[in-house]
């Protein structure tokens, strides 16, 4: 018999990650089917990190395992040499977790795009690694981007990593901020005002308040009472700027009876983080002002229906205040007083939620949809995170490469010799280098010792052509040449550590986009294993 | 050079990619770098030590083996638990209960031909200075602050004319992690930055005993106060589900009494085991960064990290790479004592309690001396009894302002030096 309340075998197995993304996140992962293009070291390392919870993976690769693959790729072994790389990598990865399904396709992606474009649409996420011609990458982008399938393009050469995420739109409710507490100190609701009146009105009165009571008034009530006193001598205004807040802190200090009054210390520490006018944060406004929020249709995602209900609640029913999250941080107080205060916040949050739920129901019936098609718990999660929800609008590769390149971003970065944009350019040149070989081969620059110089100047020509196309004047050319030098030095080879690092980074991002939790990167990260730095660009 | 041939004869192409960066000088490579046999010989000959064979350790062993290191030792005293399986990728269900170090070593040796990994299923404290002196680099993948402090202090103490062993340390929590390179006595050491890694503030005992407000307060009450009270000498085993269930039931009862919502079995386990949520991908990032630094240090093929890199994946991707400054008054690698202001009216016992609360010291059973006299010793028994009366004496009776206090503690492989000044 299992011990009382003890977790199931599955909960035990996934205990550590369930503490991060919960059962909902885990379920989303278990429904995911990931396509890995090419069983490179970076690719198998990515899958290794994902077999801890995804449902299924597929590897497509048409090459056979060579000796040099074993020096970089942990998921190939001596017995694999000469055999299908996709198959061997798939076998060794499947050993990691019997609950994960894995299969393979012995084909190259360029053929597959032509022969089976519809099968690409079945995947939850597609990850491209290794030497793939640019034309195929752009074809994949044309298929995946309009369908909202996250497409990761990962390049690992020598000490350099570039990872690009092409994803048209990504909405996140559970962004996991440090705290979701909103104390409403500048706009207390009636129940909170009443509790303050009852518990803190006499906090300065030594006749009516014992020193024990004084030292145990929850700091939220201390602040509300002190704000009331402050407003009576400041034309009814709350402290607004830094100077006034500093004065307010001294004012609070003057109300302490003993240096041991921890609740007053907590109140003083809460002034800067919690004395804010209750405005709708700009990220939330962006969501409210999006046309998908304004113009709901029967096809609108739950996110937009709930966002619209919260918007209507905020501006039409709640004087511009978002629904209350209802969370309360811990604070020095008697148990019963703390629980009472906590319940005041929770009740208000529940009341706000009930109004939002009603709005969701009526929006749904207006759209001709089942009123119950959105659960109350989904609305509740959104209400709690309304100040932290996020809409990321991505860019296609086609925009980056053809229609609308970010020439200005590149040109701004280029002047800085320490910028990692130089690696971006060198890796773009690498891509052109392997894509332009007429015989269908993809021999990387620096593959032979004898070709280093010739390949380096070819790479530099590719960069110049790119900058020319972008109408960007080359600056910090020495830094660009050094980046080229490092890429050519590697001869197209993966270093295991760098591939493993890349596999960790991509796996984190894949988990974030699949669970729709935490904030995913937008849209390109360059990591440099020499200076141990990274930079993110929106390209 | 006979040693370097091992890499080449093993198979002509196996290390082709790694050899590209060892045979070729890069634009950022140090002038002193000689491409070819020299860096390869170092990888073949150098003994490298891995501390920990858990989430980070499994990754580190794989990475070092695929970085061309041939002689690797690994120390871990733990056995494999079912909750390790999904991210400690060298372990399978059949391995549950076996030594982490032994299973991990055997797996990597089987997969990567030519690497030799020597496992030790023991505590790091079981090994002596001579053992540690044989290594060229130590890579730490631990989740314990205490073990890291011990390893750090040991490597700092080993520094002499012939010995300077770089310590590469990694740590993770959720989507965040850090890697760092410590050159003992030359750059900032683990102790110099202890204030960055202090555990969460402890909840005051009076909150647990009389005014709980959070589910965690109820759980801590059950484990800290009720367990010893009701179970006497029975040691709490946080891996025993019966023990956790007992605590959970007690905590639940207390929570109901105070109307505190939210106590769960999972939370009970999290609080009493101090579980830090860990995921495979973050371990991979941090371990790879550490091993990349190890490879760069060993081969000088590229400059290495000076000396700290933080990775944050919660909100987009953000890394911060910086030089953490060495502290002159670091009790391990500095040569200056720290200053401590005390109230002369405190008893020695009160001073000890306050020192135990200080996050930057985190003492367990401290013994205290000045240069001229012994104030209190935890052991041996006879001396403990002799010095015990001092505990109730006031500081002003025992020491003078300006005295240097030397503190030793079983959790600290060095003495803490404090110059005393009196407040008020």
Helix and strand arrangement:
The complex is a heterodimer of chains A (539) and B (424).
Chain A: H1 9-13, H2 15-30, E1 33-37, H3 41-50, E2 56-60, H4 67-70, H5 85-94, E3 101-105, H6 109-115, H7 117-120, E4 125-128, H8 134-144, E5 151-157, E6 160-166, E7 169-172, H9 190-200, H10 211-214, H11 219-232, H12 242-253, H13 262-274, H14 282-289, H15 291-294, H16 302-317, H17 335-366, H18 376-384, E8 390-393, H19 397-403, H20 407-414, H21 421-435, H22 452-469, H23 477-489, H24 496-515, E9 524-528, E10 533-537
Parallel strand pairs in A: 1-2, 1-4, 2-3, 4-5
Antiparallel strand pairs in A: 5-6, 6-9, 7-8, 9-10
Chain B: H1 5-10, H2 16-23, H3 37-45, E1 47-51, H4 55-65, E2 71-75, H5 100-111, E3 116-120, H6 129-133, E4 137-141, H7 145-157, E5 167-173, E6 176-182, H8 205-209, H9 215-231, H10 241-257, H11 265-272, H12 280-299, E7 308-312, E8 318-322, E9 338-342, H13 348-357, E10 367-370, E11 374-376, H14 381-387, H15 395-398, E12 404-409, E13 412-422
Parallel strand pairs in B: 1-2, 1-4, 2-3, 4-5, 9-13
Antiparallel strand pairs in B: 5-6, 6-7, 7-8, 10-11, 10-12, 12-13
Helix pairs in contact in B: 4-5, 4-12, 9-10, 9-11, 10-11
């Amino acid at each position: 018999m299992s011990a009382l309340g003890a977790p199931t075998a599955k909960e035990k197995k996934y205990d550590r990650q369930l503490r991060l993304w919960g059962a909902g996140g885990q379920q989303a992962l278990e429904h995911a089917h990931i396509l890995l293009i090419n069983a490179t070291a970076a690719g198998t390392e990515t899958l290794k990190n994902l077999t801890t919870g995804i449902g299924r993976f597929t590897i497509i690769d048409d090459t056979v395992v060579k000796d040099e693959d074993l020096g970089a790729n942990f998921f190939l072994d001596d017995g694999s040499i000469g055999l299908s790389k996709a198959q061997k990598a798939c076998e060794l990865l499947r050993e990691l977790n019997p609950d994960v399904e894995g299969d393979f396709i012995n084909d190259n992606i360029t053929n597959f795009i032509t022969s089976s474009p519809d099968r690409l649409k079945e995947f939850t996420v597609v990850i491209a690694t290794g030497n793939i011609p640019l034309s195929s990458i752009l074809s994949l982008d044309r298929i995946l981007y309009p369908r909202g399938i996250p497409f990761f393009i990962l390049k690992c050469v020598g000490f350099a990593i570039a990872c690009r995420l092409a994803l048209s739109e990504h909405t996140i409710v559970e962004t996991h901020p440090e705290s979701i507490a909103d104390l409403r100190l500048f706009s207390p609701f009636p129940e909170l005002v009443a509790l303050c009146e009852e518990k803190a009105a006499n906090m300065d009165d030594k006749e009516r308040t014992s020193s024990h009571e004084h030292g145990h008034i929850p700091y939220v009530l201390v602040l509300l009472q002190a704000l009331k006193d402050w407003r009576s001598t400041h034309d009814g205004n709350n402290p607004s700027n830094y100077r006034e807040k500093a004065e307010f802190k001294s004012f609070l200090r003057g109300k302490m009876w003993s240096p041991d009054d921890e609740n007053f210390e907590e109140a003083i520490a809460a002034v800067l983080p919690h004395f804010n006018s209750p405005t709708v944060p700009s990220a939330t406004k962006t969501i409210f002002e999006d046309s998908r929020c304004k113009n709901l249709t029967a096809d609108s995602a739950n996110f937009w229906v709930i966002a619209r209900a919260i918007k209507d609640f905020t501006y039409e029913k709640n004087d511009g205040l978002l629904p209350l999250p209802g969370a309360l941080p811990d604070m020095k107080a008697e148990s019963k007083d703390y629980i009472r205060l906590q319940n005041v916040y929770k009740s208000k949050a529940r009341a706000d939620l009930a109004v939002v739920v009603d709005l969701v129901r009526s929006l749904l019936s207006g759209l001709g949809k089942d009123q119950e098609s959105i659960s109350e718990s989904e609305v509740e999660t959104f209400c709690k995170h309304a100040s932290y929800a996020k809409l990321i609008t991505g860019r296609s590769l086609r925009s980056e490469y053809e229609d609308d390149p970010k020439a200005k971003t590149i040109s701004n970065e280029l002047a800085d010799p320490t910028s990692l944009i130089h690696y971006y350019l060198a890796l773009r040149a690498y891509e052109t280098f392997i894509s332009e070989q007429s015989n269908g081969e993809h021999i990387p620059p620096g593959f032979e010792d004898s070709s280093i110089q010739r390949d380096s100047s070819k790479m530099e020509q590719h960069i110049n052509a790119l900058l020319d196309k972008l109408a960007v004047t080359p600056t910090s050319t020495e830094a660009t040449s050094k980046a080229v030098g490092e890429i050519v030095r590697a001869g197209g080879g993966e270093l295991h550590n760098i591939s493993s690092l890349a596999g960790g980074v991509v796996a984190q991002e894949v988990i974030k986009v699949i669970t729709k939790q935490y904030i995913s990167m937008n849209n390109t990260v360059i990591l440099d294993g020499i200076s141990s730095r990274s930079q993110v660009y929106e390209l | 050079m006979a040693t370097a041939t091992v890499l080449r004869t093993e198979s002509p192409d196996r290390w082709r990619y790694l050899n590209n960066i060892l045979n070729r000088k890069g634009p950022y490579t140090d002038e002193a770098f000689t491409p070819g046999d020299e860096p390869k010989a170092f990888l073949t000959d150098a003994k490298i030590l891995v501390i920990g064979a858990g989430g980070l350790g499994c990754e580190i062993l794989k990475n070092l083996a695929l970085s061309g290191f041939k002689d690797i030792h690994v120390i871990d005293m733990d056995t494999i638990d079912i909750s390790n399986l999904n991210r400690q990728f060298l372990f399978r269900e059949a391995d549950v209960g076996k030594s982490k170090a032994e299973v991990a070593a055997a797996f990597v040796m089987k997969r990567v031909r030519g690497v030799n990994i020597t496992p030790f299923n023991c505590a790091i404290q079981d090994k002596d200075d001579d053992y540690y002196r044989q290594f060229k680099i130590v890579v730490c993948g631990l989740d314990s602050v205490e073990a890291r402090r011990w390893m750090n202090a040991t490597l700092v103490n080993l520094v002499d004319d012939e010995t300077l062993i770089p310590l590469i340390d990694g740590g993770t929590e959720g989507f965040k992690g850090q890697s760092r390179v410590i050159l003992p006595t030359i750059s900032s050491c683990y102790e110099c930055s202890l204030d960055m890694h202090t555990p969460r503030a402890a909840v005051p005992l009076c909150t647990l005993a009389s005014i709980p407000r959070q589910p965690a307060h109820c759980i801590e009450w059950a484990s800290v106060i009720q367990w010893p009270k009701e179970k006497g000498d029975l040691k709490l085993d946080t891996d025993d589900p019966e023990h956790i269930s007992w605590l959970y039931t007690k905590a639940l009862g207390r929570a109901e009494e105070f109307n505190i919502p939210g106590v769960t079995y999972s939370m009970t386990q999290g609080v009493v085991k101090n579980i830090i949520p860990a995921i495979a991908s973050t371990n991979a990032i941090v371990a790879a960064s550490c091993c990349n630094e190890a490879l760069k240090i060993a081969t000088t093929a590229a400059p290495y990290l000076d000396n700290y890199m933080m990775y944050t994946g919660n909100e987009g991707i953000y890394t911060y790479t910086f030089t953490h400054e060495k502290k002159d008054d670091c009790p391990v690698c500095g040569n200056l004592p720290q200053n401590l202001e005390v109230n002369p009216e405190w008893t020695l016992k009160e001073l000890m309690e306050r020192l135990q609360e200080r996050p930057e010291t985190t003492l367990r059973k401290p013994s205290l001396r000045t240069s001229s006299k012994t104030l209190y010793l935890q052991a041996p028994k006879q001396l403990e009894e002799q010095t015990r009366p001092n505990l109730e004496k006031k500081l002003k009776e025992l020491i003078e302002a300006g005295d240097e206090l030397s503190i030793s503690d079983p959790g600290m492989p060095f003495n803490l030096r404090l110059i005393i000044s009196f407040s008020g």
